[in-house]
Amino acid sequence: MYNFQFYNPTRLVFGKGSINELPKLIPADTKVLILYGGQSAERNGTLAEVRAALSDYALFEFNGIQANPDYDQLMPAVALIKQQNIGFLLAVGGGSVIDGTKFVAAAACYQGEPWEILETYGKHINAALPVGVVQTFPATSSENNNGSVISRYSIQAKRSFRNPQVFPQFAILDPEKSYSLPATQLANGVVDAFIHVCEQYLTFPVNAAVQDRFAESLLITLKDTGPQALANPHDYDIRANLMLATTLCHNGLICSGVPQDWATHKIGHELTAIFGLDHAVTLAIVLPTLLQMFRDAKRDKLLQYAERVWQLCDGNDDDKIAAAISKTREFFEQMGLRTWLRDYDINANDLQPVLDNLARSGMTQLGEHKNITLEMSQTILEHSI
Ligand code: NZQ
Ligand code: ZN
After folding, report:
1. Tell me, what's the pLDDT at 288?
2. Residues 73 and 195 grouped into a single domain
3. What is the pLDDT of residue 321?
4. What's the whole-model pTM score?
5. What range does the record give for the signal peptide (predicted)?
6. Which ligand is nearest to the CA of 68?
7. Would you list the DSSP string of 12-65?
8. Which residue, 237, 12, 39, 233, is CA-closest to 134?
């Protein structure tokens, strides 16, 4: 196991009715800005509960944060915060709203042009406004991590940043608030979370028994509860297990002390930037091909994954690995995601802008061995058609 430091200060407030805890979590006499997306949080009653719980606070609202949040669309929130001297930001929504809120929290305190935050991956953030979260979409773990992914549509860019200053102070996780998710989004969330674990687990062994077993329990929980949640959208226990699993998939714990990949995400982000595909869809396309291409380098962990997650015990090691990769793709398709670029009318002639973007953002040495060059990314994409 590698040396590591684990730090995660986000308080998780889990369960039915937990929005009522808000006044205990936000200091009194603070001006609060509620940030949200389209109409989903209004329609399913989450915002009404939030406004009621915070009725003693001076409340401001910023709405319309879109999926894959846009830098230019977020900047008016920064202006509003400065103008009104806002002291606390409350994100009500999914990963996009949470990521957008983290960016705004850092941008409001940043000296200089805020796009620099993305260009420098968050390295120069020295302060940020406090952020809290009411999560409505189990997927990204953004509610308890220090990362954020921001797009800038005017230049077809999708970049991420990371900094301890943007850890949310708390995350309210009420499984009932996610009941209104359409099946396609629910499926996206399950697949995104599953692939978060793969990025931290399907690398090479470093004798990290706890991290491995924890990762396997998350993968098994997702592969079991994902289809159950699709079939029973209002079952509390299923949704509660799903929500807890997605929250723990990418919160800094299972990546502690082990190698990490993340090439699927880096390539996937550029597919979203160029073609507008949903985040999880891009991952479901790239991961199975990447595993196939790097099955030798990832051999030991793929075998462990086959045996422990998919209970594949028959045949020789190569058979088990092949079956595990097939089962992974089948699982994504069972959830309703299509896993080939051709399913989205994308062919080899369309790929150059994706590669240009990877080059422009310096994504030319990806993967746990830093050996996924631009040429390799091209091959992965070509084999995903
Ligand atoms: O805009 P509204 O009306 O809220 O609708 C949203 C949105 O259209 C809807 N939705 C959310 N909660 C709902 C709901 N609809 C009905 N009922 C509910 N309870 O779902 C749609 C998608 O929401 P979004 O927030 O975009 O989804 P997700 O949570 O998957 O977030 C995706 C974003 O997170 C980034 C992705 O790149 C993408 O931009 N990621 C962030 C990460 C992080 N910060 O650590 C890691 C991830 O790998 C990922 O890259
Ligand atoms: Zn993701």
Report:
1. 98
2. no
3. 98
4. 0.98
5. none
6. 1
7. EEESTTGGGGHHHHS-TT-EEEEEE-SSHHHHTTHHHHHHHHTTTSEEEEE--P
8. 12
Q: Which ranges of the chain does DSSP label H, i.e. alpha helix?
A: 22-25, 40-43, 46-53, 71-84, 95-107, 115-119, 183-201, 209-231, 236-248, 263-275, 279-293, 299-308, 317-334, 352-360, 374-383
Residue 84: which CATH number? Answer: 3.40.50.1970
Nearest ligand 1 atom to alpha carbon 40: 3
**Whole-number Å distance between alpha carbons of 82 and 355:** 38
Q: Considering the domain boundaries, does residue 55 fall inside one?
A: yes
Gap between the Cα atoms of 370 and 376, Å rounded: 11
Of all protein residues, whose CA lies closest to atom 21 belonging to ligand 1? 67
User: Residue 327 is part of which domain span?
Assistant: 183-384
- Ligand 1: which of 102, 141, 162, 185 to mutate, judged by most atoms within 8 Å of the beta carbon? 185
Q: How far is the CA of 123 from the centre of ligand 1 (A)?
A: 24
- Nearest 5°: the CA angle 277, 281, 282 is 75
ipTM of the complex: 0.99
Q: Report CA(195)–ligand 2 centroid distance (Å).
A: 7
Question: In the structure, which protein residues have their CB atom closer than 6 angstroms to any atom of ligand 1?
Answer: 37-41, 44, 67-68, 93-97, 99, 136-137, 139-142, 145, 147-149, 177-178, 180-181, 185, 188-189, 192, 250, 265, 279
pLDDT at 85: 98
Q: Which of the residues in the chain have pLDDT under 70?
A: none
pLDDT (0 to 100) of residue 147: 98
Residue range 187-216, pLDDT digits in tens: 999 999 999 999 999 999 999 999 999 999
Rounded distance between C-alpha atoms, residue 278 and residue 206, angstroms:
33
The pLDDT score that the predictor gives to residue 191 is 98
What pLDDT, on a 0 to 100 scale, did the predictor assign at position 237? Answer: 98
Domain termination residue (choose one: 177, 199, 217)? 177
CB-based contact 266:373 (threshold 8 Å): no
Q: Do 36 and 61 meet the contact criterion of CB atoms below 8 Å apart? A: yes
Q: Can you tell me the distance from the alpha carbon of 214 to that of 201, in angstroms, rounded to the nearest whole number?
A: 10
4 falls within a domain? no
Please tell me the predicted confidence (pLDDT) of residue 167: 98
| pLDDT tens, residue by residue, 139-173 | 999 999 999 999 999 999 999 999 999 999 999 99
